[in-house]
Amino acid sequence: MTFTNKIRNVLDSLKNPSKAELKDALLQLDMTLDNLAHLPEPSEGKPYNRKLLYKNEEVELLVMNWSQLECAPHDHGNSFGWIQVLSGTSRNSVYEVNGNGLPIELFHVDYQKGTYFHAPKKAIHKMKAAIHTDLVTLHLYSPPITGMIVYDLPKCAACVVSDDCGAWWPDEQYQKVKEIRFRKTYKGNGSYNK
């Protein structure tokens, strides 16, 4: 059986999967870097380049190859998922939305090769490769991500991005589905001016 067939066999059976079922599917895939032919090179000026491995109405499976840049704080719309670190170490920063709608970083956790971590629905986070590591991650989401919100904290703004945009401020106008402006300005040290 080819690895593509294995992905189909495991993921085709998922119907409105729970958190536990989604993680179990990722564990069943038992994916390593050796399973991935033609891994996308990190994009210049972007935090990562991604490759869609599988998608149906219930789930999507992506692999991401990271540069040394961090992605913007973002949520995953109405999706939740699991992230597996295939190579390197990922720094995952978790945010909480304050009273004015802007996220404030609460803490960060480093995840090393072989670990899995959950991305809850509507949770805001950002990721980056730990210094001097070649980070590759595998992402399994349900349902496929749509309506992702990306935050630009220094500009005190956010936007819902198109499905072809990653976790960064859109380069193209058409990728900004809806732009959101906040009243307070971000000072860069975790606080805001009134």
From TrEMBL:
It comes from the Bacteria. InterPro entries: CDO_1, RmlC-like_jellyroll, RmlC_Cupin_sf. Pfam families: CDO_I. GO terms for molecular function: dioxygenase activity. Keywords: Dioxygenase, Iron, Metal-binding, Oxidoreductase. The keyword Metal-binding applies. PANTHER family: CYSTEINE DIOXYGENASE, CYSTEINE DIOXYGENASE TYPE 1. Belongs to the cysteine dioxygenase family. This is Cysteine dioxygenase family protein.
